[in-house]
């Protein structure tokens, strides 16, 4: 009898292994990226003098398109895009170079100059623009709008829908003496985003979503921790990313040459256990001439294996 029990136990373990192997073998690969395209809009610029409401220079746009082609991502989340008209322009110019992203989504929130957007070469599902988020920073009397809002985009796959949340948290530029580098405001915005994600997915352990974007903060910061957990509830796992040289920075202040890691991707526990190869990521460092010209940020590309 004992031998039969051991045999059945071994058989069950073997079946589990086979099922996991089959799931891995039939997993669909989906690549998602995040990229701050640095003022792809009309804004004041200094190009041979002061130019108000001036578009992104054509040389920068061409470099940007070269990076997008190299990224080869299925879905790309964009920050600092000037709305749907600029997304359509980008799509048109990419198509003229043989790079096709037919599906787009865009939103503005309180900031009507630097919006959020998505371009995709795979069909998109529901798109939700969360413009109503409020963030009350520590010590403030009133809550303030999350200026860039939160863009939610569903991406249907054979294994089910994967939801992409796109963020662009408060920059470090501020005039508030009681909140240097706007850290408290960023934390409050991250908490507002986190709470909305939990409203949409109350059980993140079984949910399939990513939170990506320019967080204007570094790994381990209060803002990044807020996006990953609320109390004992784990919401997402941060994904490490390196470029071809093993470098991890994604943003540069060019004048003082300060390199930081502001652009991030976080994956729900329902998609990734934090240890398997179901999720990998890389930052784009080549071709360097295009990277340096296109934006002050670098793209982060996440590859998912979505099991059927």
Distance between the termini: 38 Å
Mean pLDDT: 92
Task: Count up the helices.
Answer: 6
Helix content: 25-40%
> What is the chain-wise order of helices and strands?
HEEEHEHEEEEEEEHEHEEEEEEEHE
Salient structural properties:
single chain, 308 residues, alpha+beta, six-stranded mixed β-sheet, 6 helices
Q: Could you describe the 3D structure shown?
A:
The chain is an alpha+beta fold and 308 residues long. It has six helices and 20 strands. The strands form six sheets. It has a six-stranded mixed sheet, covered by helices on one side. Strands 7-10-11-12-18-15 form a six-stranded mixed sheet, with helices on one face. A hairpin with a 3-residue loop joins strand 2 and strand 3. The longest helix has 24 residues, at 2-25. The two termini are 38 Å apart. Mean pLDDT is 92; it is low at 15-24.
């Amino acid at each position: 009898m004992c031998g039969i029990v051991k045999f059945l136990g071994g058989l069950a373990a073997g079946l589990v292994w086979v099922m996991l192997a089959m799931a891995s073998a039939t997993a669909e690969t989906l690549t998602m990226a995040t990229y701050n395209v640095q003022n792809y809009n009309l804004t004041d610029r200094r190009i041979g003098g002061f130019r108000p409401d001036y578009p992104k220079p054509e040389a920068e746009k061409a470099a940007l398109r070269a990076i997008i082609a190299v990224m080869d991502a299925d879905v790309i989340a964009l920050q600092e895009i000037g709305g749907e008209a600029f997304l359509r322009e980008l799509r048109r110019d990419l198509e003229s170079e043989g790079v096709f992203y037919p599906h787009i989504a865009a939103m503005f929130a309180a900031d009507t100059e630097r919006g959020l957007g998505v371009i995709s070469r795979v069909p998109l599902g529901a798109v939700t623009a969360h413009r109503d988020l409020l963030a009350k920073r520590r010590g403030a009397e009133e809550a303030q709008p999350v200026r860039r809002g939160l863009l939610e985009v569903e991406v249907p796959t054979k294994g089910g829908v994967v939801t992409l949340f796109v963020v662009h948290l408060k920059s470090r530029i501020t005039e508030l003496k009681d909140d240097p580098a706007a850290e408290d405001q960023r934390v409050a915005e991250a908490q507002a985003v986190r709470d909305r994600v939990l409203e949409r997915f109350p059980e993140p352990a079984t949910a399939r979503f990513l939170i990506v974007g320019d967080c204007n903060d570094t790994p381990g910061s209060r803002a990044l921790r807020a996006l990953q957990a609320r109390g004992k509830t784990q919401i997402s796992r941060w994904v490490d990313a390196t470029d071809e040289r093993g470098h991890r920075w994604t943003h540069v202040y060019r004048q003082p040459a300060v390199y930081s890691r502001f652009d991030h991707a976080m994956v729900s526990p329902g998609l990734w256990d934090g240890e398997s190869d179901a999720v990998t990521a890389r930052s784009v460092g080549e071709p360097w001439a295009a990277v340096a010209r296109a934006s002050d940020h670098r793209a982060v590309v996440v590859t998912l294996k979505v099991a059927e």
